[in-house]
Amino acid sequence: MKKNLKPSTQKRTGEKRKEEAFEQYRQTFLQVPKIDDRKPVFMSCHTRDRLDEIVRRLGGRKMSVSGLIENLALHHLELYGEDIELWRKL
Question: Could you say which residues of the chain have pLDDT below 50?
Fold first, then answer.
């Protein structure tokens, strides 16, 4: 008796979603920003090391932790900018 073996589309769909999510992450956070007027930012060594690992593994050759932090901050301000303005008035 032969079993009908169909390829699993669920696995491919899951992989495609992972790839799409990764590409969206790269477009949002791992694009090299142009930073004209730089200022220092302090953080723990542990956090800096973790961000450095992300940049080294997932970012391009010119990507830096500073660039990642710039992108993270801009994204945060874009997402919460209106709310922050409302909260300031509380």
Answer: none
